[in-house]
What does this fold into?
Amino acid sequence: MKNIILFFAFVFSSFYFSQGNSFVYELRFKPNPNKDSIKTVKTILDIKDFKSFFRTESQRKDDSIFAANNSRKMLNFGFEEQFFVEKNLKKGDINKIVISGFDYYSLKINEPFSWKISSEKRKIGDFDCQRAELDYGGRKWIAWFAAEIPFQDGPYVFHGLPGLIVEIKDENNNFLFTLNQVKKGSDFYDSKANKILVNWKTVDKLKLDYYNDPYKDFKPNSAGNNFSKVKYTDERGNEIVPDFKEWTEHEQKKIRENNNPIELSHKLDYK
It folds into this structure.
């Protein structure tokens, strides 16, 4: 594990809650549970005033651009590998943000977090950590938290322990979040104010609709879309005629082969 960089000692918790902090986690996960290939993503947890945002570094940069000039560089047209979460720890509100194109959906996480704290301890980087276990999303999770960092928060949806989660993984080693940097006084912004409230049933339908026709909004006969006049080019910049049938089959194959959602209990059977 990388050495954890500390810029200030966490002594007075009230000070740190009000000032804002960023916690950088490395996320390693298996897109395909039946293969050994690992994908690594840099993610960031921003905390201020008992509120937090957890997102990938690229999502955070895109939010920063939007906050500055009301424009975006990123678009997301799939539903897999989405880890954006916002929390209000005072209210107990945990919401997963699901992004599709220009639309942002807010999915409330209602599953209880019933941690089982063990007496087992270990040193992780500079921190003395304690073990805890949790059943969430159809997976058993093993976490190590540091009571010396006074935030009852952690990566993704995980929260509620008496200290920041420094490391957490599922017992089958499909997902691993590891803290590797701490920054004080980070910028704190939410550029996704107009979110559509949904439940898991709606999210499942959105995912199936995308799987069945992933390029629906790009086709010339798609009513009311902004992509009907899009020009497609190859890697050399030459304009090409889109083969939506071939592209669709390729995207569907990729979705089937990388069907390892972090909430295993909401895994869909794509056919």
